[in-house]
Design brief:
Keywords: Calcium, Cell adhesion, Cell membrane, Glycoprotein, Membrane, Repeat, Signal, Transmembrane, Transmembrane helix. By secondary structure, this protein is mainly β. It is built from seven helices and 52 strands. Strand 30 and strand 31 form a beta hairpin.
Length: 798
């Protein structure tokens, strides 16, 4: 540092810089102290802050190093590139600190990321740039010739703004035989000269004596100032006023009202007449500022308050008071009056936010620093003790600095709880600083802390799972439902995109027929649903936000397809060979009333009312012969046939469902009346033909029986395997069979004489094709067991 000072002196002539570094680290605080002489040019390097803090040069710029300036013009600046602390302008110690010594300039500096605050103290060193100056060039002093040797006469002191060794160190008096000079040191660089009489004066010898008083400071080289003193020798007034007390002192409070009497001084004079009348005045040592604050009554000696007394400006006043008589040659005495000022609590605390991060993440840990708060109270003692609190209930607290330095009223605003932006986006933190004076004074400062968002909330659906009902035959490509999600975060963290979960491990083909709008969550069906193919299925929609990392959640959508009346009834019987719903039924003419002619069989793929079928007779040749059951489709005779009844009757049957818009189908049944003999003959012919073919059919029956048994066994095994491997998905299909009575074959038995007849129709099973044959289905049953086997295989082969 001394080498740096020598280099600076070489570069700037008489300018020189002394730098003293003293760094204490305690948490986020450090103290650095430099020294620099006054009157050096602006731009002079005071010290390298980066080096003294142990930082790289570019660290100051990266961490936003700055000086927290007050309202006055800053004297220093930091170059963030090289880390040097520079003077902004030429310094004048006397302008900055007046008589105060040492002259310290305290700087608050802040580093960001993380927050650190450092104290930089610059000691401005005095140089001998001022010479002693007397307020007057000439002083006239009247001294009586009766004055005895040793008499002292106070002279006007010279003023030197410099301090320490550069202030006035001595006074010199020009060579003479009557006087010498003595100096009385009153402290605080105050040296008062006194003219001491060494040899009694003789007015008759010399009426005047011209002397030169020289004030010399302690600089090298020393500077001086002169004043001419003219001593006029007067005639006799040989008693000086005498003060009654050796010491005068008083104590007052600051802000005391104007014209308040502080103290009264009193002096007496043993002379008589005008020589004993005393007048009081302030001595020559009373400066202008003191004379503006206090006044002395010329006649009573009362010292009163003239201006505003401020403890923060001066704690003590030492006032010189002179008592002079009114003699022809006035004699004077001087006395120092000491006035002590007591502090009152007249300054509220000042709150300064030295560093502040207006935004803090909601996932910040407890104890994260938000701001650095500096509290200052200009009062002293208990009036300057400040308690800092937070006014309202917020998740922040003030952590005081434990360092004993100029920042003993430094606080850190830190988090005390976990923050949640979704509960509160910002906080108005009101900091209250209250001193301990009586009455107490306080001040407030509001800080707005914004809680910034982090992606800590999953998208949520209002309902999970979602049960959705849709009618079949919907329009492809249109929106069927919407599954919007909500994210409590903000910005990109709350921007949600939607997709359908398509898991390859799950056999759900229906997801390929769906699409979802990635922005709105609207689900579109790419195909039309068919209740008869599938009745319910499920899929999952994934909602993913745009945070980093992204968060997502699923919703399960259960789709239930509602049946529409979109299937017309299908006639299962009668069905002709060309596929039309038309059949011929032959019955004996001698059947009784209530005889079952046939049964019209139909089914509807719809369910519920849409699949509930009703039968009605639309056309019939004779309404008195036949009746149709509305619910079963059975056609029965109403009465016995007569000879006059026609041999052929045509019945038109209407089958319709119970949908809102009914769908229907028609079937035609032609009933032929035959004589019992013809039925018997047809039965004999069929029986004979069957017996002839028994020998050829038996072999085929055995082969067929074995094949059917094998196929049945394989079908059972396959069915069991499918049921075991089939998932519990909602893709089961079924087909209702309304009005199916569960019988293998449709048959009508009747007896004629000693023979029994059976009219056999096709069995009613879904998907079967019926090829009716009226004559082939009339069989004679001589042997029950034989005919039952015959009928079973006949129908199976058919």
């Amino acid at each position: 540092m001394e080498q740096r000072g020598r280099i600076a002196r070489q570069q700037r002539g008489c300018c020189f810089v002394f730098v003293f570094l003293n760094v204490f680290f305690s948490g986020a605080f450090a103290q650095i102290r430099y020294s620099v002489s006054e009157e050096v040019q602006g731009g002079t390097v005071v010290g390298n802050i980066a080096k003294d803090l142990g930082l790289e040069k570019n660290a100051l710029k990266l961490r936003g190093y700055r000086i927290v300036a007050d309202s006055s013009e800053p004297l220093f600046e930091v170059n963030q590139s090289d880390g040097n602390l520079y003077l902004k302008k030429k310094l004048d110690r006397e302008e900055i600190c007046e008589k105060t010594s040492p002259c310290l300039v305290n700087l608050k500096t802040v580093l960001e990321n993380p927050l650190e605050i450092h104290s930089v103290t610059v000691d401005i060193l005095d140089i001998n740039d001022h010479a002693p100056v007397f307020s007057e060039k000439e002083k006239r002093l009247e001294i009586s010739e009766s004055a005895l040797p040793g008499a002292r006469f106070q002279l006007q002191a010279a003023q030197d703004p410099d301090v320490g060794q550069f202030s006035i160190q001595q006074y010199k008096l020009s060579q003479n035989e009557h006087f010498r000079v003595e100096v009385k040191d009153r402290g605080e660089n105050r040296k008062v000269p006194f003219l001491v009489l060494q040899k009694q004066l003789d007015r008759e010898t010399a009426e005047k004596h011209k002397l030169r008083l020289t004030a010399v400071d302690g600089g090298k080289p020393a500077k001086s100032g002169n004043i001419e003193i003219i001593v006029v020798v007067l005639d006799v007034n040989d008693n000086s006023p005498v003060f009654r007390k050796e010491r005068y002192s008083a104590t007052i409070k600051e802000n005391i009202p104007i014209d308040t009497v502080v103290i009264q001084v009193n002096a007496t004079d043993l002379d008589k007449g005008a020589n004993a009348e005393i007048v009081y005045s302030f001595g020559n040592e009373v400066d202008k500022k003191t004379s503006e604050l206090f006044n002395i009554n010329t006649y009573t000696g009362e010292i009163t308050v003239k201006g505003q007394i401020d403890f923060e400006k001066s704690k003590i006043y030492d006032i010189d008071v002179q008592a002079s008589d009114k003699g022809p040659v006035p004699l004077t005495s001087d006395k120092s009056v000491k006035i002590n000022v007591i502090d009152v609590n007249d300054n509220p605390p000042e709150i300064e936010v030295t560093s502040f991060s207006n935004s803090i993440k909601e996932d910040s840990k407890i104890g994260t620093t938000v701001a650095l708060i500096s509290i200052r109270d200009s009062d002293s003692g208990i009036n300057g003790k400040v308690i800092c609190t937070i006014k309202q209930d917020v998740p922040f607290t003030l952590s005081p600095s434990l360092q004993e330095n100029m920042f003993n009223n430094m606080y850190s605003l830190v988090t005390k709880q976990v923050l949640d932006r979704e509960q509160q986006t910002h906080y108005e933190v009101i900091i209250v600083a209250k001193d301990a004076g009586e009455p107490s004074l306080s001040s407030e400062k509001s800080i707005t802390v914004v809680v910034s968002d982090v992606n800590d909330n999953f998208p949520t659906f209002s309902q999970n799972p979602v049960n959705f009902y849709i009618k079949e035959n919907n329009s492809p490509g249109k929106t069927i439902l919407s599954v919007p999600a909500h994210d409590s975060d903000e910005g990109s963290n709350a921007l949600i995109s939607y997709s359908i979960l398509r898991d390859r491990d799950i056999d759900n083909l229906f997801t390929s027929f769906l699409n979802v709008n990635s922005e709105s969550g609207e689900v579109l069906a790419l195909k039309s649903f068919d209740f008869e193919s599938v009745k319910t299925f499920q899929f999952q929609v994934v909602a993913t936000d745009s945070g980093s990392p992204p968060l997502s959640s699923n919703v399960t959508v259960n789709v239930f397809i509602l049946d529409q009346n979109d299937n017309a009834p299908v006639i299962l019987y009668p069905v002709s060979s060309n596929g039309s719903a038309e059949g011929v039924e032959e019955i004996p003419r001698n059947v009784n009333a209530g005889h079952l002619v046939t049964k019209v069989r139909a089914y509807d793929a719809d369910i519920g009312y849409n699949g509930w079928l009703l039968f009605s007779l639309q056309q019939v040749t004779d309404h008195s012969l036949f009746a149709l059951d509305r619910y079963t489709g059975q056609i029965r005779t109403l009465r016995s046939f007569t000879e006059t009844d026609e041999a052929e009757h045509k019945l038109l049957i209407l089958v319709k469902d119970n949908g809102n818009v009914s769908l229907s189908a028609t079937a035609t049944v032609i009933v032929k009346l035959v004589e019992p003999k013809e039925a018997f003959a047809a039965s004999d012919v069929q029986s004979a033909a069957a017996e002839d073919e028994d020998s050829h059919v038996t072999f085929y029956l055995i082969i067929t029986l074995g094949s059917v048994s094998l196929l049945f066994l394989i079908s059972i095994i396959v069915l069991i395997a499918m049921q075991c491997s089939k998932s519990t998905d909602y893709t089961s299909k079924y087909l209702p069979e309304p009005n199916y009575d569960g019988t293998l074959c449709h048959s009508i038995q009747y007896r004629s004489g000693d023979k029994r007849y059976m009219l056999v129709g096709p069995r009613m099973s879904v998907g079967s094709t019926i090829v009716p044959g009226s004559h082939a289905n009339t069989l004679v049953l001589p042997d029950r067991r034989k005919e039952e086997v015959r009928l079973f295989w006949g129908n199976c082969l058919r």
